[in-house]
Amino acid sequence: MTDSRDTIYADPLREAGLFTFDDNVARVFPDMIKRSVPGYTTIVAMTGLLAQRYAAPGSNLYDLGCSLGASSLAMRQNLDHRDCRIIGVDNSKAMLERCRTIIETDTHDTPVDLVCADIENIAIDNASVVVLNFTLQFIPLAQRDAVIRHIYKGLRPGGVMVLSEKVTFEDPHLDELNIALHHEFKRANGYSELEIAQKRAAIENVLLPETLATHRERMANAGFSACDVWFQCFNFASMVALK
Ligand SMILES: C[S@@+](CC[C@H](N)C(=O)[O-])C[C@H]1O[C@@H](n2cnc3c(N)ncnc32)[C@H](O)[C@@H]1O
Ligand SMILES: O=C(O)C(=O)C[C@]1(C(=O)O)C=C[C@@H](O)C=C1
């Protein structure tokens, strides 16, 4: 099945409303994220391999901000029979409804629970793997330390957190360069200047990127014994943090 094409910002919008994960976005999300995030397909696939390595028998694997379940499915399809449970969490009803349908068509065994909730308010227990693929960037800055500390507490010793984010750069020239290269990537994937500009306006103050140094400091302060970037393309990066 081909993904429905994202044309949300193709026509001039009278009001530049704030970006939300509503039904219009959920409908085109696979196409939107693949054409907007360099490395997205690789990051999701490698999340499956990381889960395969770190999933402990009898433990929980969390996919926080699961959207349509791409990372949950990558994990499920790479687990052997290890008596694990995958818990996908998202606060968008539109995303979760579609996610449920997609997960139902997959035939792998590991149970997947889908929870409609804010990731700031969920219990995290007995976790060997916690994934946040492009989710923390939407959490208010003041809440991010608490979210990462809460994840650390819920992880078993030897567990892993995978954190993928849009990032900014301390050096203004590097920041400009990476933003320009990201926009080139979008152009190469068929987005027009209008689409790029209107999306940029819609996500401003909604998606708040931070520097890699800020992420590292937050993970270290939460207690993670080691963390590093395992993938980066322009201003999108994925990190692993070990407990
Ligand atoms: C860019 S998408 C994540 C993509 C997904 N992880 C993947 O790999 O395909 C961000 C998701 O986070 C969800 N989200 C944002 N803030 C949230 C919150 N506070 N609690 C739960 N979900 C949240 C959004 O509804 C959206 O589905
Ligand atoms: O930064 C952008 O321009 C994006 O479109 C990125 C991004 C993301 O990183 O989540 C923003 C919103 C959509 O969820 C898809 C992609």
TrEMBL record:
One GO BP: tRNA wobble uridine modification
Methyltransferase domain ranges (all copies): 63-159
Annotated InterPro entries: CmoA, Methyltransf_25, SAM-dependent_MTases_sf
Annotated signal sequence range: none
Family: Belongs to the class I-like SAM-binding methyltransferase superfamily. Cx-SAM synthase family.
Function per UniProt: Catalyzes the conversion of S-adenosyl-L-methionine (SAM) to carboxy-S-adenosyl-L-methionine (Cx-SAM).
Name listed for the protein in its UniProt record: Carboxy-S-adenosyl-L-methionine synthase
Organism: Pseudohalioglobus sediminis
